[in-house]
Write a structure and sequence with these properties.
The strands form three sheets. Strands 2-8-7-6-5-3-4 form a seven-stranded mixed β-sheet, with helices on both faces. By secondary structure, the protein is an alpha/beta fold. Pyridoxal-5'-phosphate binds next to α4.
């Protein structure tokens, strides 16, 4: 068959191991997954109430244009309805953008390490991938700018960055956007937007108004706690969004996902609480790292990447045996580190106590 040549070398996305599998493999009663940056506090209780009390006709296709959700998000953000593109998670938006703008002969610029889906989709489209190493765990916008040439189609800025959790300061972003050629699309992936507390980040919505070549991506999967439903969206100028609309699959958000996203959006109290609890969790981890002299990156997200002073695969395995799933830095391009999503306070305490034991056992702590 005539598969694209590049497909032959590719593998499907490797998610963190599912809880049930780890339970079986190690005979554990309880397994805590701190690997995929999901919200440990679940989602707004109003969503569960809504699902219990709503009768939906499953035989009918969803509204492909997600009109009700569109109205809700446009009001929430203060943008026009036609400035929004909805996807089955931002993963879908990344695929749509890549499909629309990437092909053999063009290139795309991204930080390294950063979110894997940018390069994954670029590879499928046969575009050249230009990875620019992070500087102190942060995007090196100067080097990224230097990587741009007349064949550059998309620059991805993961802000805050996954897996380091670091932000791009507004000052730097502003200077970067000013000089990037107008034919180059700059995508700001703000999957962790709600968690940001550092004033060095400033809301980026106005950049969409100033620059036609800027698109912002946000999602209901992280702080809103709706990863199961797959709802993400992009914000851009109307004529740019209209170029992406034909690439979108006709019914890429389900009926139920559109409805619960609206309910979740209305409950900003839940988001506020989530952010407060996340801040407390962050302090737990930072204190642990400081106490043991482990390097960590200042996170503006619900996860933290920190040093384990030994092979991160070993720590990943040893923690899994004890009922904790994390991400090994080896899988993320940051060997010697692990990425841990914050859990509930109780989960974090248990995790850090267990980790301390494992690190001592491995001779990583004195
Ligand atoms: C989790 C994540 C996404 C994907 O989110 P979905 O909306 O669930 O597809 C996108 N970008 C980054 C940086 C993420 O961490």
């Amino acid at each position: 068959m005539k598969f694209k040549e590049q497909i032959y070398g590719m593998k499907a996305y490797q998610p963190g191991k599912p809880i049930e599998e780890v339970q079986k493999e190690f005979g554990l009663k309880e397994v805590i997954k701190l690997a995929s940056n999901e919200n440990p506090f679940g989602c707004s209780p109003k969503v569960k109430e809504f699902i219990k009390n709503n009768d939906i006709n499953y035989a009918i296709y969803p509204d492909g244009y997600a009109q009700e959700l569109r109205t809700a998000v446009s009001k929430h953000l203060g943008v026009e309805e036609n400035q929004l593109l909805f996807g089955s998670g931002s993963d879908d938006i990344i695929a749509i953008i890549s499909r629309a703008l990437l092909y053999p002969g063009v290139n795309t610029v991204m930080a390294d390490p950063s979110f894997s889906q940018y390069s994954h989709n670029a590879e499928i489209e046969g575009a050249e991938i230009r990875k620019v190493p992070l500087k102190d765990g942060k995007h090196d916008l100067e080097k990224m700018f230097e990587a741009i040439d007349e064949n550059t189609s998309i620059v991805w800025i993961c802000n805050p960055n996954n897996p380091t959790g670091t932000i791009v300061a507004d000052e730097e972003l502003s200077a970067f956007l000013k000089k990037v050629p107008k034919e180059v699309l700059v995508v700001l992936d703000e999957a962790y937007f709600e968690y940001i507390t550092d004033p060095a980040y400033q809301d980026t919505l106005h950049y969409v108004e100033e620059y036609p070549n800027v698109i912002i991506m946000r999602t209901f999967s992280k702080a809103y706690g709706l990863a199961a439903f797959r709802v993400g969206y992009a914000i851009g100028q109307a004529d740019v969004i209209s170029k992406l609309e034909p690439v979108r699959a006709p019914f890429n958000n389900t009926v139920l996902s559109q409805k619960v996203a609206i309910v979740a959006l209305e409950d900003q109290e839940f988001i506020k609480e989530t952010v407060e609890r996340t801040e407390r969790a962050k302090r737990q981890y930072e204190e642990f790292c400081k106490k043991h002299g482990l390097k960590y990156y200042p996170s503006q997200t619900n996860f933290i990447l920190f040093e384990v002073k030994t092979d991160s695969d070993v720590i990943f395995q040893e923690m899994m045996k004890r009922g904790f799933i994390v991400r090994s830095g080896n899988a993320l391009g940051t060997p010697g580190f692990i990425r841990v999503s914050f859990g509930t306070e109780e989960q974090n305490s248990k995790f850090l106590e267990t980790l301390e034991g494992v690190l001592k056992e491995q001779g990583a702590l004195v």
